[in-house]
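Protocol step 4 of 5: obtain the predicted structure for the target chain.
Materials: sequence only (see below). No template structures provided, no constraints applied. The aim of this step is simply to have a reference model before the mutagenesis design in step 5. Sequence pasted as it appears in the construct record:
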Amino acid sequence: MDMVAACRVLLEVDERGSVTRAAAALRIAQSVASRRILALEKHFGSPLLERNARAAVLTPFGRDVLGAARRLVLLADELELDVERARLRPVTIGVPEDCTTRDLAVADAAAREAGLRIEFVAAPPQRRAQLISTLSVRVAALAVPSDQALWVAELGAAGRRPSDRPLRLESLRPSRHIRAPRDGIAGSSIHIGPEDDLPHIRDVLTRAAFAGGLTPGQIQVDTSTTSALAAVLAEGDLLLCTEAEALDLALHWRPFTGLDVNRGFTLAGDSAHDVRAVRENLEDEIAGALGAKVVSRDPETTDA
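Step 4 output (structure tokens):
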């Protein structure tokens, strides 16, 4: 028995004085309304209506339970409203700050086609992890080493001037006789922005630079991509970034040679359902926003 539906009939009968008029108000057949009242009476073990040819009125027992029936219907209506609000509430997704507006819009459009409402929250890596742990976002692209990643983006060095040659860190080694680096196309320092200020990226690059004879000051960590880009434009330095980022910043990108350094991302969330929905519908679009490629392996979903 549908208790809520039966109570709706009872309330309408009390208001309209007839099972027929109650059925019309609820847009159901009169026989359906009658069956619901009979089922309710059977469940309660007592008659609810006094019936005659002209009208139907509540018995004393029916009047006693009417208040509870009204509260049940109101609560059911409130539940339906809450469900609709929850359905309309977007799935918030934490993403890197360097994702372009267009790439995120492409992902949003794909989500809408799939019937999924999303909203992006841009934040640096550590902040995205915090947003997940505090349930401030429902899903996030977390930075992880590439062997744990769902998406991987190759990192290289971008500067003002074009070059067809991959970059060897040794070419930036200061000369004893000339202050400028040996590679006249590139600047003397490589700048690391917030998205790459992580041990599995920063430390790999720093160790390789040390092994190549670079000075400690030639690997610089900046507090923002803006300040790193300013150094590239003003001083001719290089920015550690993906090829997609370099294109967006109007810089010329070069891969490293003899050095494998990548950004890795996995999808995490408190709800495995949210993570699965985002991945199934937006895996390629988010890869595009991250400037990354979907790797062939299938890492286990990370739950915060």
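Step 4 remarks: Residues 177-186, 299-304 have pLDDT under 50 and may be disordered. DSSP finds ten helices and 14 strands in the chain.
Proceed to step 5.
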